[in-house]
Amino acid sequence: MSGALALLREDLRDFAGYASARSARLSGRDWLNANEAPWPNPADAGGDNRRYPEPQPPALVAALARLYAVAPERLLVGRGSDEAIDLLVRAACRPGRDAVLVAPPVFGMYAVSARLQGAPLLEVPLVEGDDGFAPDFAGIERAARDGGARIVFLCSPGNPTGAAIASADVARLAAALRDRALVVVDEAYAEFSAMPSALGLLDAHDNLVVLRTLSKAHALAAARIGVAIGSADLIAVLRRCQAPYPVPAPCAELACAALSDAALAQTRERVAQVRAERERLTAGLQALPGVRRAYRSDGNFVLARFDDAEAAFSALLDAGIVVRDQRAAPQLGDALRISIGTPEQNDRVLAALAGAGIRAATARGAAVETP
Question: What is the pTM assigned to this prediction?
Answer without folding.
Answer: 0.93
